[in-house]
Amino acid sequence: MTTEERAKRGGEVIRSLNNGQPQPNLERMREEFPFLAEATEAYALGDVWSRPGLDTRTRQLAAVAAFAAIGETAFMKIHAGYALNAGVSEDELKEIVYMVTVPAGFPRAITAARTLSELFAERRP
Amino acid sequence: MTTEERAKRGGEVIRSLNNGQPQPNLERMREEFPFLAEATEAYALGDVWSRPGLDTRTRQLAAVAAFAAIGETAFMKIHAGYALNAGVSEDELKEIVYMVTVPAGFPRAITAARTLSELFAERRP
Amino acid sequence: MTTEERAKRGGEVIRSLNNGQPQPNLERMREEFPFLAEATEAYALGDVWSRPGLDTRTRQLAAVAAFAAIGETAFMKIHAGYALNAGVSEDELKEIVYMVTVPAGFPRAITAARTLSELFAERRP
Amino acid sequence: MTTEERAKRGGEVIRSLNNGQPQPNLERMREEFPFLAEATEAYALGDVWSRPGLDTRTRQLAAVAAFAAIGETAFMKIHAGYALNAGVSEDELKEIVYMVTVPAGFPRAITAARTLSELFAERRP
Amino acid sequence: MTTEERAKRGGEVIRSLNNGQPQPNLERMREEFPFLAEATEAYALGDVWSRPGLDTRTRQLAAVAAFAAIGETAFMKIHAGYALNAGVSEDELKEIVYMVTVPAGFPRAITAARTLSELFAERRP
Amino acid sequence: MTTEERAKRGGEVIRSLNNGQPQPNLERMREEFPFLAEATEAYALGDVWSRPGLDTRTRQLAAVAAFAAIGETAFMKIHAGYALNAGVSEDELKEIVYMVTVPAGFPRAITAARTLSELFAERRP
């Protein structure tokens, strides 16, 4: 598979996670940091996120747990949105946040909870 | 619910995850650090891990992702063992490790991979 | 002790630290993340922070050191405020920040210093 | 060498990195956190950053890598500015960010990329 | 104050913390990493740890909390030993570990507990 | 470029860094974690480490700084060995370690120093 094909596959992964839309942060990065945009698209999304061994719901819940545990809440928010798009419920995301108190402590979990609150509010009609 | 009941529920969670056995590290901690043993049993396992909102497979995969992302491989190994006991396949655990390269980088994923290799070898008959 | 009693004890710990007031962030969390609010109140504050083995001043200074060292400055600010309420001086909090350069480096200490500056300014009449 | 001489040497290091100007954040810290300002000036800049064993370009690129990898982007931005002042090109800073995906994962690298974008834009005439 | 005087002051701080003995790890570092040994002695111990604004017990308990929260258990062990030398009780150190579950999660606290167990055992006659 | 070509390029990068030898840890990973071995080879080494925008000495010194700052000393040791192979001096590596005290604190720098001591000793005839 060529890098171009991998990037194309990554673009398809994004649109399948993001209700058919491209990811605006990735698009903005393309001009000034082209290799990082390509690596995100071809490696992170095209290679890793397209792998068939985990269903989308499970991968997104595990990714939300990892992003919350390391304190990367902006990325957690994007992936929690993808999780909701894939049919994960708000309550399941809350359970991930509750679980994160154990490996990573209360500040990481409370910050993740606030970020999910924002996400839930933004998606309400 | 009293603390005693919560600790009892935590003990049941451990045995259900650990093929009916208690967790030896927790038992060792009980004498010298009684509050930490109680908090692990009553809060971490009794309160958090007994919640019904996530099935055991999903919670264990998300916990493995979180422990691997923050570099807590000894805890990742214990929870990966619980995941295998709950019917998660070795291949699904490998997919979690592959995913961890994206949020947390290659050293965390490679260290997690080596730890899973040890776990898999220890469980082979 | 029941969970309700532990949460009540946690509420008393907060009010004793916070000049008789509830903690507004905790109250906001109660509706959308009820288990996390309960865990913070019953476990973190009710179980851990009510323990008699450390006086309030020492526990708050150690907690400020821990929150500063891991970069959780919003939580550091709350606990530094509790420390001031308990009679810790601004100068003692500054000493904690100076000490944090050694275990955690200059960025964590400088960020903590800025956060303490904000806190001190907010509390000036 | 006395502490006063070390601090003076640190002040010279800053001005040589910062186009002849003092560092405003350091000046602000001087009144309220005098020991931290002195430690930054005398130890971090005066002792460490004045050492002759690395040329300025290499030290700044390595420092940018370290600050980016630990997620301290405000400090990364300051040191990336010093790097540009020392003749490092924007493209070399981008290469550091690309490299950071490997040790520290994509969120740290993407956040560093956005911070560099801000820095580059602020310096455009 | 000259660097030599600061290093001498640091050596006195170590001996006052360490029952009159030098710190063997620091001595080993002196030949191959002379600047790091000097910085540890003159800055970390001579400048920071000699400051009069915190009593030894409080500084050591706060330092143990910080080292435990960031997972630097070898350094936590050294400073917990200094704490015991300064009259801190084993029970007070245990309280610090219990507190660390809140900011930094259970793995960091449990690992710190095991390290304290080793330290306590090594010091038993 | 196909993934096979990228992996081949990564293999060449390793051999050019490692005195013509393959990297034994990578080879061991190939059987049980084939995607992680491929990602390390094709992405980390083939895509990132083969980029021409930084010379090998600068990239290795920046990578050593990043690995040391995040506490990944096993990976730091491998990349410090590659740095020595590329003509970086022991003294330049020591300067990186001294610098790391500023962004990441003394424990990370002291641990990195011990790891470099091991590496230097292993390479002495």
UniProtKB/TrEMBL annotation, chains A, B, C, D, E, F:
Transmembrane segments: none annotated. SUPFAM superfamilies: AhpD-like. Pfam families: CMD (PF02627). Residues 36-115 form the Carboxymuconolactone decarboxylase-like domain. Residues 1-25 are annotated as: Disordered. Residues 1-12 have a biased composition (Basic and acidic residues). This is Carboxymuconolactone decarboxylase family protein. It comes from Azospirillum formosense.
